[in-house]
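Risk register update: the risk of archive-format incompatibility is retired. Evidence:
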Amino acid sequence: MSEEDSDDTRSGSAMFNIVAGILLAAVSLWLLTVAIPNNIGQAAGKNDISPALFPTLASWSLLGLSLALVAIHIAKLRVQGSDGSGREGVWVLGQLAVWILVAILAYLGIQTIGFLPVAIALIAIGALGCGYRNYWVICGLAVVTPVILTQLAWLIFTVELP
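Archived output:
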């Protein structure tokens, strides 16, 4: 098994990456056309930048990278071909369902118990889900990263996270 084959097996499949790229492109288009124009002020002061600049740049970057992801994996499928087993669709739907559930639980958790406990749990579960088994490092990252993010959000933007 070559390095490329094992890489596709670990990530689910090229089909998963194509579907993920299409979904991310749709999200970025929604951000660019609906969310940012309707929720973030476009006007800038005389010597200031528009508040929508960074969200817009991030959305354009997301669109470009997601389209690149789709193009790369479509080309990979054309070169390597699909095994035709049909299991890719079930795998993609299963992973999509898990990530939707995680996103909903994270949203509800942030609203009810706050950013720090939810971020600690998400980082720890994500590291374990990725197969990382160094528990001391997982605990350190899961605790230190959200604390640093909370402090930076306050020091730089004067925003208190929930």
